[in-house]
Structure formats: C-alpha cells, structure tokens
Amino acid sequence: LASREAHPDFSIVDVGGVKIGGGNLAMIAGPCSVEEEDRMYRIAEQVSAAGANIFRGGAFKPRTSPYAFQGLGEEGLKRLRDAGHAHGMPVVTEVTDPRLVEVVCKYADMLQIGARNMQNFALLNEVGACNHPVLLKRGMSATVNDLLMCAEYILSQGNANVVLCERGIKGFDTATRNLFDVSAVPLVHQLSHLPIIVDPSHATGKPELIPACAMAGIAAGADGVHIEVHDCPEVAKSDGPQALLPEQYAEVASQMKALAELL
Ligand code: PEP
Ligand code: MN
C-alpha cells in the first residue's frame, strides 16, 4: 500500500487544512515538550509569525531515564491545542502508548509516532484504526525499508494519512546527535507515494547545524521541515541544547520559503 507501484501519484495528507505533499511545504515548529501555558502561546505566536503552519510539542515524552520529565499529559495536550489553534495552526504531538491514542486524538490534529516507537506494532495498529493523520518518524537504527513497512502497518488498518520523517540515524561520530540521512528523502520518493519531511533538530542536536540541514532536506525534495524552537533554551524541560531561538527560526524559515519557491 505504501509503494508507488500500488499508487503512482504522490499522496497529499491534510492536517487540519494544511496540506503535506504535492509541492506544499509543511513548516512544523514548537518546543520539544509542552511547557507553561504563557510560554506555549508566546512560542506559537513567534513561530506562526515566522511562517510555521503546524505547531508541535510533546505531552507524553519518551525519555531515556524514567526520572526525567515525562510530559504534562492531558493538560499538555490542551495547552498545545489551545496555543496552536489560537494562532491558526493545527497541532502535532507524540502518542507513546496504544491506550493513549483516544485521548491524544481528542486534542491533536496529527499523531506523532516517535523514533523509539517506530516498530511498536500495537501502537501502529491502533493509530491505523483511527483517521487522524500520522507523522511516523524513522527509528534511529531503522532502514528506509523498515520505515516503509511500519507505514504499511498503519495503511493496512485503513488509515491512509501517513507522513514519514527522517530524523537521523545512529552513526559512530558523537559530534552530532545522530547522522542526518538526507538520501532517505529522494529514496522514499522513488519507492513510495507518501510525503516525507525532515527533522534537522533531532538529526543534528546542534542549533548551528540546523539551517544547513533544513535547506539540504528541502533541496532533496522534502515535503516539510520539523524544527524545535524555544524562547529560553536554558530552562527547556527537554532538548534545550538543540532548540533554535524564535529569531533564529524566523531567519531559517524565510530561507526555507525562498528555496521552496525556486523548486
Ligand atoms: C520529538 O519529536 O521530540 C522526539 C522525541 O523525536 P524522536 O522520536 O525523533 O527522537
Ligand atoms: Mn525533542
């Protein structure tokens, strides 16, 4: 179902009125975790003014340590939705457990399956059984074929609204958080009709490397770019060190729009 043999025309996925695929550039931005209410409204205003069209933030966080901040749960979902919708942006947030799909669907316009859960087949089947758009991130040790087969789980349950995301894979060089596999973008477009976006924030882990990798993703044909933005990275509840400041996001956003216009 994911292959272009089955479906030669590229799919367009509608996320609360924002189209992903078919030449539209999705600009997804927001903090790693949903935080204080006033901060969510402020960041939403800033990224929306810069051109972002989908707001992000995690309310259920898949953390390495069980003692690290785990997210604000349902209260976080509400804050994300209210702040995003107040600024005209649909919202995407991660769902980490099949038992949470129902509550996340209540607030979110798009469900994110994180890299750590790419092959959580019970979760894939559950999101496949609803009609919400799904952002499926590539696992950090997954091949492109593994990613496409995970999309197949969702599609085979009847949910056709799947967008893929390249967010970096494990490399040997610890100078970057992950290894940004930009070749996954044209490869997915060769093999599949599904849209694919890039996440240079998790791929690099370094704010100074994000703009170049965002532009590389667009040049390679990505249908969108996902970037973490925080107005005070030092106090962020997660992934502060990789966050762009709102003004840095505004600069890369205008460059991304200019490049997308040329293609
Ligand atoms: C995230 O988007 O904040 C996240 C946890 O991403 P990933 O699953 O790609 O690590
Ligand atoms: Mn993050």
TrEMBL record:
Domain DAHP synthetase I/KDSA: 17-262
Record-level GO BP terms: aromatic amino acid family biosynthetic process
UniProt entry keywords in alphabetical sequence: Transferase
MF annotations from Gene Ontology: 3-deoxy-7-phosphoheptulonate synthase activity; aldehyde-lyase activity
Enzyme class per UniProt: transferase
EC number, as in UniProt: 2.5.1.54
Descriptive protein name: 3-deoxy-7-phosphoheptulonate synthase
Species this chain originates from: Roseiconus nitratireducens
The encoding gene: aroF
Full-sequence range covered: 71 to 333 of 345
